[in-house]
Amino acid sequence: MQLALWTYEGPPHVGAMRVATALTDVHYVLHAPQGDTYADLLFTMIERRHHRPPVTYTTFQARDLGGDTAELFKTAAREAFERFAPKAMLVGASCTGELIQDDPGGLARALSLPIPIVALELPSYQRKENWGASETFYQLVRTLAGPQASAERAPRDKSRRPRCNLLGPTALGFRHRDDVKEVSGLLNQLGVDVAVVAPLDASAADIARLGEADFNVVLYPEIALTAAQWLQRNFGQPMLQTVPIGAGATRDFIAEVVKVAGIEAVDPAQFEPRATWYAKSVDSTYLTGKRVYIFGDATHAIAAARVAVEELGFTLVGLGTYSREFARETRAAATKYGVDALISDDYLAVEAQIEAVQPELVLGTQMERHVAKRHGIPCAVISAPVHVQDFPARYAPQMGVEGANVLFDTWVHPLMMGLEEHLLTMFRDDFEFHDQARPSHLPAHRPAVNPGASRGAEVIQLPQRETAPEIAADVAWTVDAESELKKIPFFVRGKARRNTERFARDSGVATITIETLYEAKAHFGR
Fold this sequence. Notes:
Elements: H1 12-22, E1 26-31, H2 40-46, E2 55-57, H3 69-84, E3 88-93, H4 104-110, E4 117-119, H5 129-145, E5 163-167, H6 176-190, E6 193-198, H7 204-208, E7 215-218, H8 221-235, E8 239-240, H9 247-261, H10 274-278, E9 291-296, H11 298-311, E10 315-321, H12 327-336, E11 341-343, H13 347-357, E12 361-364, H14 366-375, E13 379-381, H15 400-426, E14 476-477, H16 479-485, H17 490-507, E15 511-512, H18 514-524
Parallel strand pairs: 1-2, 1-3, 3-4, 5-6, 5-7, 7-8, 9-10, 9-12, 10-11, 12-13, 14-15
Pfam family, one: PCP_red
Binding site for [4Fe-4S] cluster: 36
Binding site for substrate: 418-419
């Protein structure tokens, strides 16, 4: 066992809480000591929900261990049913409650409540949060949709639009609510209706009718893949596993929907995000080849690697995940892009790798944000675990067309800020751009006048502007160097030319090449 200051995932019962909190009429009775009620804060403080999770704790104390803790659980379950009137009940134990071995499932069934009871056996010391969410959703689907599995599936009525389920979004998920809105809108444009979104905002009745849809879309495999596989086996529902994060993946997703739903092909150009053009624009050429390190849950990390390399032109120097269940997929992606995958839930191992590869941008979780900040590296959050600022009030999906635009802005802006800081350093001694220089769009001769002074008061003389240094006439530029120089913004291009020619003269270089240009840039940026 390893003591950690930070952890990427909580215990599996927190995953069960995320599923229960996402649902509308399902209650979770958790056999847990008083201290384990901390999990409520995850939803009310970090996600800023306006109501508590639908969880009842037995909250046994040390003195109760000598008595009948089983009776405490039965009382808590009975009172939860009477008070909240759920349509289904999840029962289980926290990591501490698991040690008592009271069998919450058997105790709940002994109460003969008139609702489905879903007993969760979540091994707290072998598994973690995302697995707990996956197992909870799977058991819930089996219990509620299972009775309909034996019914013969009727062929689809060709007069109606195809229907699908969106599976995987939960409470406390990274941009899950916005992703659902974006993907639902995209499917509607394609001519596909969304039957059920689960577990987010779904009822027990919605879970029971999952088998009525024509196919399933697995938005978050860490949570929904197991349930989708069960639905495929028992209802014959195809499942889409292309996660539409990034412009390329969104195009692939659209093609897969068209194929599975049996609808007419569409022109992908109508779904092209602005980010595709922005990534090709002049400003973005400064970002080409930037070294990026990526770490997060497997779904977001693998998708981010594709976007970074294939759409933004970054150089991937590291890729990893804490999702051990998806280690194979992560290693395959890492091999594709020529790096070694890091499969670890130790944030210190991640920090050590970041220090070793020296990236110029880190895409990771809240913990990588802290690491990058300590090392002075730009960072953007792409995956849970996240903090309160990653549940923005604005619409900010990660998936679909608008999601691709959000990714571009979120990832590129930290690098652009770094470019601005570099320019400020490079031109800190320039006669026009230094800290004391007046705004260039205002008259340079305008004096600072004391309002109380008379008209005959002495006029304050401003310092004369320095003249630009003379440049050696015998310095020549190659065609490639001139072309590269034109990529520099016009308002600093003259300064860059003068500095480069001065550097060439001082270095005894007669012909300026691209290499000379960047050597001069590094020299004056020190």
